[in-house]
C-alpha cells in the first residue's frame, strides 16, 4: 500500500487536510531546481513506486515527464478555462462553447441577483475548482465568495504534482450556463489523443455514490482494459449520438500536442467542449491490466525538452 493509502486509512479528514496544506505551502517556497526531485517523491508517496523521469516508458510516467519538460505558455493559455474559449472558437467554431454568463477578477464583482436560477462557477486556473448551482435560492452566497477567493489565491502546480503549465494561467472566475443531459446529470466524454490521434475514450458519471468511469475504443466498443483513478468502473454506456463529430473535433483540438485529453458534453443533440487537459489525472491514473500502460506509452512520442520560464527543471 502507498503512503497515501496508509494515511487515508488511519488519519482523520482534518489531519489529511492539514497535511495537504503543509505540502502546498512547502512547495510554494521551493526553488525550481527542487521541482523534479519533489515530483518524484510525491509520486512515490501516492503510488507506492518510483516515477522514471530519466527513461520513461509507460504512459503515466511520460505524462509526469511532460509536466516538467513540456509546460509551455501555450498549454497554460489552453488550460485556462476562459482563455481557451478564443482558441476553440478559432479552431472549431463558436457553436462548441458552453454559453458564458460572466467573467470576473474577484468574487466581490459578481452580481448574483443578475445570474439565472442555475449556473456553474469555475476558477480558470486549476482543476476541480467548480461550484455547480442548481437552485440559486439554496446558495450560500457569502460562503461561495469565500471559496472562490480562496481558489484565486492558490497555485494548482504546487498542490504536489507540479503541473507547471498551470503557472501560465490567469486566475479569474467564469460563470457558464448550467447544462444537464438525458442521464439526469452531465456525463463527461473524454478522448485521449496523442498528436491528435484518438487512442481511447472514457466516460465519467458523478452521482451520490461517487464517480464511475468506463473505457472505450474509438469505435465505442468496450476497451479490453480500464483506465481509472480513484473511481469505480461503470456498466456499459451507450455511444454518444454524435460520436463521429466528437472524434473529429478531438483530433483537431489535440493536433500538435504529444498528449491531450479533450472533453465534451452532449446535450439535446449538441456537442459542447468541456476542457483540454494535458496532464490527465495529474499523472496518477492507472490501467487494469497494467500492461496497457506500456502499450500506450510506446505510442506516446515525447517532444524535445523545453525549459520552464528559462530554467531546465
Beta-strand percentage range: 15-25%
What fold name goes in the CATH topology slot of one domain? D-amino Acid Aminotransferase, Chain A, domain 1
Unreliable stretches (pLDDT < 50, length at least 5) are none
User: What's the count of strands?
Assistant: 12
Largest sheet: number of strands, sense, barrel closure:
6 strands, mixed
**Structural Rg:** 19 Å
How many helical stretches? 9
End-to-end separation in angstroms reads: 30 Å
Q: What structural category arises from helix and sheet content?
A: alpha+beta
Oligomeric state as shown: single chain
- Average predicted confidence as pLDDT: 94
Helix percent reads 25-40%
Which strands sit side by side, in order, in the main sheet?
A: 9-7-6-5-10-11
Second-tier CATH architecture of one domain: 2-Layer Sandwich
CATH class of one domain: Alpha Beta
Question: Strand-and-helix sequence, N→C?
Answer: HHHHHHEEEHEEEEEEHEEEH
State the shape.
Answer: globular
What can you tell me about this protein's structure?
- The chain is α+β, with helices and mostly antiparallel strands.
- It has a domain at 184-302: D-amino Acid Aminotransferase, Chain A, domain 1, CATH 3.30.470.
- The protein has nine helices and twelve strands.
- It has a six-stranded mixed sheet, with helices on one face. It has a four-stranded antiparallel sheet with strand order 1-4-2-3, covered by helices on one side.
Amino acid at each position: 500500500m502507498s503512503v497515501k493509502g496508509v494515511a487515508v486509512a488511519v488519519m482523520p479528514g482534518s489531519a489529511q487536510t492539514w497535511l495537504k496544506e503543509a505540502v502546498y505551502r512547502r512547495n510554494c517556497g521551493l526553488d525550481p531546481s527542487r521541482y523534479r526531485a519533489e515530483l518524484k517523491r510525491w509520486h512515490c508517496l501516492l503510488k507506492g513506486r518510483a516515477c522514471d523521469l530519466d527513461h520513461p516508458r509507460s504512459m503515466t510516467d511520460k505524462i509526469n515527464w511532460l509536466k516538467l519538460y513540456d509546460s509551455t505558455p501555450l498549454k497554460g493559455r489552453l488550460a485556462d478555462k476562459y482563455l481557451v474559449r478564443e482558441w476553440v472558437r478559432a479552431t472549431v467554431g463558436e457553436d462548441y462553447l458552453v454559453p458564458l454568463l460572466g467573467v470576473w477578477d474577484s468574487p466581490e464583482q459578481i452580481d448574483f441577483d443578475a445570474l439565472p436560477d442555475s449556473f456553474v462557477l469555475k476558477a480558470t486556473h486549476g482543476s476541480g475548482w467548480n461550484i455547480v448551482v442548481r437552485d440559486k435560492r439554496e446558495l450560500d452566497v457569502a460562503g461561495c465568495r469565500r471559496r472562490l477567493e480562496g481558489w484565486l489565491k492558490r497555485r494548482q502546480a504546487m498542490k504536489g504534482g507540479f503541473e507547471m503549465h498551470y503557472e501560465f494561467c490567469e486566475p479569474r472566475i467564469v460563470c457558464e450556463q448550467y447544462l444537464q443531459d438525458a442521464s439526469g446529470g452531465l456525463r463527461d466524454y473524454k478522448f485521449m489523443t496523442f498528436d491528435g490521434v484518438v487512442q481511447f475514450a472514457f466516460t465519467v458519471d458523478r452521482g451520490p455514490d461517487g464517480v464511475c468511469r468506463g473505457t472505450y475504443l474509438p469505435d465505442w466498443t468496450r476497451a479490453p482494459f480500464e483506465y481509472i483513478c480513484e473511481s469505480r468502473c461503470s456498466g456499459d454506456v451507450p455511444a454518444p449520438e454524435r460520436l463521429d463529430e466528437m472524434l473529429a473535433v478531438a483530433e483537431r483540438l489535440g493536433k500538435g500536442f504529444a498528449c491531450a485529453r479533450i472533453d465534451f458534453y452532449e446535450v439535446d443533440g449538441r456537442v459542447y467542449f468541456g476542457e483540454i487537459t494535458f496532464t490527465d489525472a495529474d499523472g496518477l491514473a492507472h490501467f487494469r491490466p497494467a500492461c496497457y500502460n506500456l502499450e500506450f506509452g510506446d505510442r506516446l512520442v515525447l517532444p524535445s525538452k523545453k525549459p520552464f520560464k528559462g530554467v531546465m527543471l
